Amino acid sequence: MKVAILTGGGDCPGLNAVIRAVVRRGEAHGFELVGVRDGWRGLIDGHTFRLSRDAVSGILPLGGTILGTSRTNPFKREGGVDAVFRTVERAGIDAVVAIGGEDTLGVAKRLFDEGLQLVGVPKTIDNDLSGTDYTFGFDTAVGIATEAIDRLHSTAEAHSRVIVCEVMGRHAGHIALHSGIAGGADVILVPERPIDLAQVAAWVMARQERGKNFSIVVVAEGAQVEQGKDATLNAELDEFGHVRLGGIGAYLAKEIERRTGIESRVTVLGHIQRGGTPTARDRVLATRYGVFAADLVRDRRWGMMAALHGDDIVAVSLDEATKELHLVDPKLYEMAEVFFG
Ligand code: F6P
Q1: What span, in angstroms and rounded, lies between the C-alpha atoms of 122 and 120?
Q2: 68 contact partners, CB below 8 Å, separation of at least 6
Q3: Which stretches within the chain are classed as H helix?
Q4: Residues of the chain with pLDDT > 90: what percent?
Q5: For residue 95, how far is its CA from the centre of ligand 1 (angstroms)?
Q6: What is the fold of 140-274?
Q7: Is 167 close to ligand 1, i.e. is its CB under 6 Å away?
Q8: DSSP code string of 105-143
Q9: Starting from the edge strand earliest in sequence, which strands make up the sheet with 162-167, in order?
Q10: Residue 87 region, left (φ>0) first, then alpha (ψ -120 to 50), else beta?
Q11: Does 228 have pLDDT greater than 90?
Q12: Ligand 1 pocket: which of 70, 99, 126, 238 to mutate (most atoms <8 Å of CB)?
């Protein structure tokens, strides 16, 4: 069986660990493996290449993806879907392992409905895919954000400032909530809850009154001051209809300073959260997903995705994994609130 592997959407620590695992397990099953360049774009353009065991040697700890990635959506390109099927036929590809988040796996689900034999692996630092408890990459992003919050504490205290730390996560607040709890943030703001500026200022002032001359506010890039109104970097939409989020941190810092009179600054962590080597936990999870995905192919369980339920890797349908966003657990947020102010 000839099996193609692709990585789509934003990159994420652990992608290479999955690729290595699919190749190693796949070769043990007797598959011939090929890589697809830059996600779905490579299948549209016919850009595939042989992936041997040698090609994946040494990539386990590397960030990024040796295959490249893009946010190409074949359903938004003229003739895109036909081109994908043409490539699959010409290259003699029997099955595709699609490693991606909500968007890439949404395309995978639709292509599966159209007859493509494929399986999925859940990737994203945002951890917003339903059907799985955790996506790989999330643990690394949370670790990086937590270290940043730790570092911001000393400079905030030295200057008697409020520092707002803006983290990624799109429309889910998992990175903000987990790193905020781990880093001991004084306020954590997530998209799942509207921002109450008066309450944020009150929390900061409560600390001031207790003699704490600084505060750390962690905000998810998708948190909203007004419901339905994202802070965005520009008005352009990508091929999946997403805006580029960003700017809520700067807005908050200005508002906090205006309302409290305390000098405030913003730090936007951005792509630092996605780059570099995965944590040991993400390497293990990515490896388990990759091995399981190769087994799904061997068992011809098309349209399924590897998922983590508790401590077990199980198969869930791509339909289930992409039908809604996995949002922050309100109970965890309420627990975090114990430490606000
Ligand atoms: O989905 C992962 C993610 O890093 C989001 O957290 C963020 O909003 C987005 O991708 C950024 O995308 P880009 O790589 O296009 O800047």
Answers
A1: 7
A2: 7, 37, 38, 39, 42
A3: 15-28, 40-45, 80-90, 102-113, 138-159, 174-183, 197-209, 248-260, 280-298, 318-322, 330-337
A4: 97
A5: 28
A6: Rossmann fold (3.40.50)
A7: no
A8: HHHHHHHHHTT--EEEEEB-TT--BTTSS--BTHHHHHH
A9: 187-189, 215-220, 162-167, 264-268
A10: alpha
A11: no
A12: 126
Closest C-alpha to 11, from 55, 72, 96, 70: 70
Residue with tokens 């936007």: 268
Q: Domain map of the chain by residue range?
A: 2-137+278-322, 140-274
pLDDT tens track for 104-134:
999 999 999 999 999 999 999 999 999 999 9
Q: Which residue numbers are catalytic?
A: 126
- In ligand 1, the atom with minimum distance to the C-alpha of 245 is 8
Dihedral angle computed from the Cα positions of residues 110, 63, 184 and 153, in that order, rounded to the nearest 10 degrees: -130
Residues 149-200: tens digit of each pLDDT = 999 999 999 999 999 999 999 999 999 999 999 999 999 999 999 999 999 9
Ligand 1 centroid to residue 232 C-alpha, Å = 12
- How far apart CA 40 and CA 316 sit, in angstroms, is 22
Q: Which among 198, 190, 225 is positioned nearest to 333, based on CA atoms?
A: 190
Which amino acid, 92?
Answer: G
Atom of ligand 1 nearest to the CA of 128: 1
174 lines ligand 1 (CB under 6 A): no
- Ligand 1 neighbour 8 (Cβ under 6 A): no
The CATH topology of domain 2-137+278-322 is: Rossmann fold (3.40.50)
Establish whether residue 245 lines the binding site of ligand 1, counting it when its CB lies within 6 angstroms of any ligand atom.
yes
The number of the ligand 1 atom at minimal distance from the alpha carbon of 221 is: 8
Question: Is the CB of 10 within 6 Å of ligand 1?
Answer: yes
C-alpha 129 – ligand 1 centre gap (Å): 14
- Does the beta carbon of 220 lie inside 6 Å of ligand 1? no
Given this model, what pLDDT does residue 227 score? 84
The answer to whether the 2-137+278-322 and 140-274 domains have the same CATH topology is yes
Q: Specify the residue with its C-alpha closest to ligand 1, atom 15.
A: 10
